[in-house]
Design a protein that fits this description.
Elements (H helix, E strand, L loop, with lengths): L1 H19 L6 H4 L9 H25 L2 H23 L6 H26 L15
Pfam family, one: SYS1
Main location: Golgi
Subcellular location: Golgi apparatus membrane
């Protein structure tokens, strides 16, 4: 899950950076000062994170497939991302924009993943393959 979410995030950030004409660096993923709305580059990073949250929900639905596990996987990804950002920057992330974006993305991934998994889990179980001997 961690690999898939980082892979899609890297691809989305690469596409967004091509659209804005900025250089590609790991700072866009791990540097918490890069998340801002002052210019197109910062806004493209925010859009990439939000799109990745939606794609993460789809990945949860396809890979995990269980409603009860969506919160665990979502919080694990964002918790490990917090640790990676902390190590990469050498200091704990303190900006409001970083925290609000990551909390919102964790919520989007968790709630949307739970919704999709719940819809799959609540589908009717077909009984046509049991046979005619069962009296319902």
């Amino acid at each position: 899950m961690q690999f898939l979410l980082y892979l899609t995030l890297c691809l989305l950030i690469a596409i967004m950076q091509d659209l804005t004409g900025s250089t590609r660096t790991l700072d866009h993923i791990f540097e918490y000062h890069e998340i801002h709305v002052r210019d197109n580059e910062g806004r493209s990073v925010i859009i990439a994170f939000v799109l990745n949250a939606i794609i993460g929900a789809l990945i949860l639905w396809n890979v995990v497939g269980r409603t009860k596990l969506c919160l665990d996987f979502s919080c694990t990804f964002h918790g490990l991302h917090l640790l990676a950002c902390w190590v990469y920057n050498g200091s704990f992330p303190t900006t409001f924009s970083w925290w609000s974006l990551n909390i919102a993305c964790a919520a989007i991934t968790c709630v949307t993943g739970e919704f999709l998994c719940l819809r799959t889990e609540l589908q009717a179980i077909p009984l046509s393959s049991i046979g005619a001997k069962v009296d319902l």
